[in-house]
Write a structure and sequence with these properties.
The structure is a homodimer of 536-residue chains. Chain A is built from 21 helices and 19 strands. With 536 residues, chain A is of the alpha/beta class.
Chain lengths: 536, 536
Amino acid sequence: MQATESTAPSKATKPRRSVRSRARSGGRSANLAERGGGGINQLPKRKFMNRFPPVAFLSEDEIESIHQASLTVLRDIGMSFMHPEALKILKEHGAEIVPDSDVVKFDPALVEEYIAKVPPTFTLRGRNPDSVHQIGGKEIVVGTVSSAPNCSDLDNGHRPGNQKDYENLLRLNQYFNVFSFVGGYPVEPADLPPETRHLDASEAMLRLSDKPFYGYSLGRARILDSIEICRRGLGIGDQELLQDAYLMTVVNTSSPMRLDGPMIEGIIEMAQVRQPVIITPFTLSGAMAPASLSGALVSQNAEALASIAFMQMVKAGAPLVYGTFTSNVDMKSGAPAFGTPEYVKTTLASGQLGRRYKIPMRASNACAANAVDGQAAYESMFSLWSFVLGGIHVCKHGAGWLEGGLVASFEKLIMDVEILQNFLEMMEPIAMDADSMALEAIREVGQGGHFFGAAHTMARYDTAFYSPLVSDWRNHGAWEEAGSPQTAEHCNRVWKQALAEYQQPEWDPACAESVREYVELRRAQGGSESLPDHAA
Amino acid sequence: MQATESTAPSKATKPRRSVRSRARSGGRSANLAERGGGGINQLPKRKFMNRFPPVAFLSEDEIESIHQASLTVLRDIGMSFMHPEALKILKEHGAEIVPDSDVVKFDPALVEEYIAKVPPTFTLRGRNPDSVHQIGGKEIVVGTVSSAPNCSDLDNGHRPGNQKDYENLLRLNQYFNVFSFVGGYPVEPADLPPETRHLDASEAMLRLSDKPFYGYSLGRARILDSIEICRRGLGIGDQELLQDAYLMTVVNTSSPMRLDGPMIEGIIEMAQVRQPVIITPFTLSGAMAPASLSGALVSQNAEALASIAFMQMVKAGAPLVYGTFTSNVDMKSGAPAFGTPEYVKTTLASGQLGRRYKIPMRASNACAANAVDGQAAYESMFSLWSFVLGGIHVCKHGAGWLEGGLVASFEKLIMDVEILQNFLEMMEPIAMDADSMALEAIREVGQGGHFFGAAHTMARYDTAFYSPLVSDWRNHGAWEEAGSPQTAEHCNRVWKQALAEYQQPEWDPACAESVREYVELRRAQGGSESLPDHAA
């Protein structure tokens, strides 16, 4: 009897036939096919509402001491704002510019005054009217990996980012319901010319996806083009644009304690039209931040508070998100590590800082693995659980991130979709109605026997439990017959199937035409080499 | 600049040399070797104290409704106790035996009366005086996978359980500090004769490990032998044995609603000497329990409460643990699934039931994967997080469980050790002293530059962050040069190294001799074919 825990009778006694039919046609989708469904059986569109209460990893006093230390850093050490326009704005609003430098020092009261102006929530909208998300509450919004210079899959291995892979990864971002916004460029379309890349990439985003749009803060011309392409693509007026959020961008500090010119222009232009900026210090503990977690948190928080205060000086009440990216490096090789115990702790603490400031928070599904293997899975799981328990709102790099973000992996993207679907399903309440409590079924089966044939079971056959996309639950014999496929191989099958099933979303032809006109106009003007005519 | 999130400067600019030296001699241990450490750098002995508050997944009303429904099941439907001795004890204590059957019905008040007698905590001790654990508080105790009929490793693949692998897996249970007790037979030593297997297996447990002992409740003779061997092996008297817990056993119900004879004898004999029984209903939702989570929880709880009440009738105040094993099956194949969203939810809810009853809880690190791949990692991570967030105390099958428990995998065991070490490290507080807050280091580095060379970093070079056992953080080029090793291959290297470094613990020769005398005596008596002379 002791063996009951390890011997799975049902698994052992299962007739081979049904198992082999699964083996032949490949797991879950095969089961569906048998039942006439066919295709990928992903979870229906459903908001990712976080049921888990946030964890107070640090005490309120400890959070307060990080806050106070950050204010001390901004008062005594200061942060470089590498753009004269920023220095002018900061000076006008009462910050102190260190003579003959771009270092800005802040009186603590000045920081407190401006971070209090950040809206605690905002609404993010996509072209699809169903695509409406409240940022700053219980909902978690997820996008795929972004900005990877390379991509990879099991068939063709590594290659530099290119337009074809860029568009296929965007299709996956659109296809899977776990993604609520376009995460950015999933991979850099490096075969497009740099000056006009953002124009073609932005047009492709709108053509291939109706989820909330994304722009890059790589200088004034590019962010202005992104905003205008988004406005035209969604067919909304300048006033409408000011009401809600339609595109997001990430601004990284150049840690330690610097904000560079292109990022500053991004903050200024996004603030002007009240679109959200995800302000994310790049504070890797041991590299661009102190080799202690509290020290790295002080650095992160000082850089974030200065940048956030600056954005509120540009436009009070402009929506933004506080991003945490703090992790540690391998002290031996200098390589960044993600999904580590240190990453979990700084993410939980950052969530506490965000709640203290009443500012929406962003984190990432990051890992340092080189393959879609066990390490990739447990590092991503540590990242995602810290996310859920940290009460984080925006999940960047939610799927496909590999090699510390140097690669967008098609298989890793699918494994992450499977993990994210598990989280979504986990958030569903347990049905507690009388029928679910099953007293009648328990009476019917009595002592001994089993519930396989019970009416209560039959009624729930298709819907009782989560059906995985890639998890392989066959017994060992059937699994070996099927060629002993590991997780990455199942993922390889699923992304190809998803691309085959992908359908391009509707897009008002007038809006599409308006975007294409703008793209051609700006191409003729040299793209990012010149400012658009509508620039202030 | 946007690329900062995906391009890892330190990773990219790292000189090849140090990376290659890691590649040659194999990751972490190589780094240690370079620094003269050598060997596996596992975490020091440290109690696994759970810092995370338990999650209330169900409301108090919902928990109460599961409790009430369980009492209704025990009052109206009843549970089979397949042993006349049990029926006699139950009748004497006021339970109702259905005429001409072994079905026992309980008045709700009777159940409430006896479950209230369970001690909320107890102390578990091993031969090693440092091996002392409080069960029922914040500590989580972990043992390896147990009772697997087969084992496997990458070199030799699958094979039936045998004495050699049994002893090697016990050595790993002893070697790694994350394990606080012997989980049981990590794999069944099936090449030992059934009647005397428990004698040789028990002697080996004591010879190879000084952590708390484990016995099997496979009938009166075997459990009495286990208790006596434990007593002699630790050199403690009958009275001392009654004071604290020195061995644990698992009792599984034969779900639905049955407790079989060998398990009943185990409960009776363990209760007599006040040793803890982990009472674990085998309620797989859709197979031996209703295909609804609340229904499966009602079944689990009814079977647990009846068995717990019975043990308290045998000996009021006898220590025990309430085990949850409730998961779901794949409705298509009947195969059990673990580490699923359903498993997480039932584990969280079970933790709430345990807190309501003030009874220590047990769960497992289970998965349904066939390989040490991504699925194995994410399923185990879901299991372990539900464990931590469920406020569970005893972790059975903590490492090495594969294929739904049909296999003890050497590589999976190491991957789980890595994951468990990550959890342990995550539980460590963030140092918040002035030096850790690093204001001076932040001042020293100022704007731009990096912390690699900072005095603050140098002082923390060796100790700043967790050093993984298997995680591979090398950049892609170095990783490819090293043969693109995946997680399972690193695990393969680590378990061999651990076995090479393993040292047999001290064992008082007089105690060892006394155990061997007993084993030979019982062997001569036919082992489990006869009761030991000291049997009541």
